[in-house]
Amino acid sequence: MSAAKEARYSLGGARSGSPTKAAGRRLSTADTASTRRPPSGDRPDERVKVFLRVRPPKAEGETPGALRIKPDGKGVVVYREHATIPSSDFEFDRVLGPSASQSDVYHAAVKPIVEDVLNGYNGTLMAYGQTGAGKTYSLSSIAADAIGMIPRAAAEIFSHIEQDKIHEYTVYMSYVQLYMELIQDLLRPESENLQIRENEGGVFVGGVHQQEVSNITQCLHLLHLGDRNRTTAFTALNAHSSRSHAVVMLTVIKRRSVAGNGDAEIQRVKVGKLFLVDLAGSERLKKSKSTGLRASEAKSINLSLTTLGMCINARADPNATHVPFRDSKLTRLLQDSLGGNAKTSLLVAACDAGEHCEETLQSLSFGQRAMCVRTQAVVNERVDYKTLHAEMIAALETQDKKSSLLEATLLEKDAQLEAVQTRLQQEQADAARRLEELQRERQALEAERARQLAEQQAALAAEQAHKQQLLAELEASWAAAQGLTEKHEAQRQELLAEVATQRQQLAAAHAAAAEAAQRHAQELEEQRRAAAAEAAAAAAEAAAARAAAQAAAAEQLSTAKEELGAQLAAAQEELARTQQLLVGSRAESRMLGEHHEQQLKDIEADWSGKVTEAQAAGECQLAAAQATIAARDQTIAQLQAAVGKRDDSINQLSHMVEALEAGKAELARQVAALQGELQAAHHQRRHAEAAAAQRQREWEAALDEERQLVAALQTQVEGYERSRMALAKSFFENKMRSDAAKMIQRHWRQYRLRRIRQQQTEGYQALNSAKATISSLAQQQRDLEQRRRANLAFSGQTLVGDNLNVLQEAVESIVAAFILPARDLKSLQSIKSKMAGGAARQSMALHAGSGGPLGPSMLSRTSTPNHDLIKAINPLAESLPNSARSTPRDLGADAPPPAAPLQQFHAAQQQYGGQLPPGPQLSRPSSYGQLAQQAQQAQRGPSREGSFRGGLAGLANKVMGSPMDRLRRLSSGHYQQQAGQHQPRY
Ligand SMILES: Nc1ncnc2c1ncn2[C@@H]1O[C@H](COP(=O)(O)OP(=O)(O)OP(=O)(O)O)[C@@H](O)[C@H]1O
């Protein structure tokens, strides 16, 4: 392949000068490495670290000896193919030779990054190198004896997580591939056109599946799954050549609690992202023998690697103002890793084979330049507001629970205290009540005792009084009896005296009566003698007189006698009566005496009985009283015993009361102590509550701020959501447009294929003509050489050489254009642009009519940028959604919104009878009119192709013209001027 072709795969060397010259300079100057080396004073962690791994040469087809590693393990010297003179030497952070194991590579290049990632840094390991150099082997191998960097890094992460008991970790894994500028999720292969997004956290793949992994087994499973979905293919250089760039992303979220302002703990989160990038290998189509799709893949790979090289160059150049990250999805994805917020290591894979010396040199140059890229990694630590919010709420709830518990405890204590106090009060009341009862009982007992005593005393007094009364009565009775006795005695004495008096009187009466009777008898005798004398006289007289007197005396006697007899009888009666009376009186007196005696006796008996009775009664009463008194005494003793018992119980109760008082005092003391504790607890609680309230206020303030932030974020998110919805809508519409456009594009491609085949035929014809011209020119050159040898001074040889080179390049381009598959739109576009440029210049030249400078320059690029040409050739590609080429630049800002493409497509189908008109100007149809216009334009398409063919014909005509004429034209210098203005750039 020509130098220009090779330059296409160079990484950034094309930034100055032509690729050929740049490549030549890079390969030939030994000072490149030294001039690009980072300053010695640099800290290694401030730049990309580069490690070279040299794969052992394969047994067949490779000649070892192209590389020699210096003894210091950092330098390497490259020997060009079939040469013994060192071509260039490089110095890296470490060179790992063919004998280096995977473990050596891991410890040198990956372990520090993994440790940084675990500390919240972003880390990247990129494997770069030509195809088959061992990138995938180094990164993804899961062979037991050669475990690659990805499994090792994952194992190290989980090993670290297992050992770290302080932090909490969450690990997510994503695996994507970048295939033909499309990002596909290897864990969700159906997601095949993911988009790269950017936010304040950096660049990320939007919508990529992030699988949470908790152990190495899950990681390996996902790795295996991703590897299965990754695109690989057989090439001449590698049986399992990776046809895509693969990126494994391990996101390690590390949470830790740190003390905040107050006692609160703030959750801080470190988010470390580890990117393990297995870049597809650069390859030369010639060596890899890739054709068709493989060749397209290789071009896409080389293109993205070229952009990567340019980005590395720009990052390494302190004066560079622009880094073309957006030129490829690979560089856009690795933007943070290429000098942004990441610690990056580059593993350059190379092989010690002379056959691949050029590629190895190119890889080493790439690595050498990467060493100059500075990085600015910072720890991605932030407050985990979401978790913090949840934890603060939980803490508040816990605090509330604690407060509630404390309150409940306090309430319980209060209740206990109150219960104790109530119990104490109750006990006190009980004790007081019992005391009162006891006192009352005591008083009652004492009163009872007093009453009983009083009663007893009263009873005794009454008894005494009764006794006294009885005694008094007895005495009175006795006195009365005595008085009566005395009275009776006196009466008896009186009676006796009276009797005696009466006796005396009776005796006197008797004596008087006897004296009266004697005197009376004497008188009566005398009166009888005087009456006898007078009786005798009177006897005489008396006898007379007697007799008369006798008679009268007799009469008188008789009368006297009668009178006397009467008197005597009366006296006698009287006497009898007196005697009777006396006897009666005596009887009476006796009777009275007896009566009195009897009465006395009776009285005495009565009184003695009564006294006895009274005495007995008194004694009985006394005994009863004594018994009563004894009973009373016994009762009193019992009462006293009861009182004593009561006193004892009162004493016991007093003791109990004292004990209770002591207990009460103790309880009061405990209560006081508890109250003290309670107050202390209240104080603490108030303090804690105040602190909690303060914290709560702070948290609430923080929460408010957070809420505001969240609200702002929510607003943003809503905005994003709206824009996402709008984007989704537009994506959907674009998808529909894209579908329609694809359909149109398919028709267009079919048409283009037909046209290209036709052009191919024409091109081959032109090519044959050009070849004939080239052979003719070679003949001319040989003639000129002969002339030069013949010392014919002719300065146009270089021009002829240039002319030949340029022509050769044109021919190769034409050949490449015609043999490239029709699917390779870029190549078609490139050819198209070249042809269009050539045609334009040709027409200009024809217009000028002066046979102006034509030839090789007509294949050089015009000033139109590549993407404009792409757009011009295939504007439908521009309208593809989510594509690097999707920017609809051809639509004016005020263009009306496009109608639904399917409708347009159907309308167009109807209009053109089911066959859509092909055409090159199929810009995104915004209306049916535009679609129809495009269709017409597509029908007019051959006009461009006509100019293309015209350009070829013109080229053929020009190159088939007279060699000397062309030589003269070329020698006029116009070509150099044109070439200077339009340097080909690839
Ligand atoms: N250090 C090494 N030791 C032994 N074999 C290796 C080493 N490096 C690579 N190989 C072998 O070389 C071959 C190619 O390796 P690998 O597929 O990793 O290359 P690559 O750089 O990924 O290629 P591509 O870019 O095409 O994917 C594999 O068979 C691999 O086993």
UniProtKB/TrEMBL annotation:
One of its GO terms (biological process) is microtubule-based movement. Residues 47-373 form the Kinesin motor domain. SMART domains: KISc. Residues 901-915, 930-939 have a biased composition (Low complexity). InterPro entries: Kinesin-like_fam, Kinesin_motor_CS, Kinesin_motor_dom, Kinesin_motor_dom_sf, P-loop_NTPase. GO terms for molecular function: ATP binding; microtubule binding; microtubule motor activity. ATP binds at G129, Q130, T131, G132, A133, G134, K135, T136. One of its GO terms (cellular component) is microtubule. Residues 973-986 have a biased composition (Polar residues). Keywords: ATP-binding, Coiled coil, Microtubule, Motor protein, Nucleotide-binding. Residues 410-588, 650-723 form a coiled coil. Residues 39-48 have a biased composition (Basic and acidic residues). Residues 1-48, 842-865, 877-986 are annotated as: Disordered. Belongs to the TRAFAC class myosin-kinesin ATPase superfamily. Kinesin family. This is Kinesin-like protein. The lineage of its organism: Eukaryota, Viridiplantae, Chlorophyta, core chlorophytes, Trebouxiophyceae.
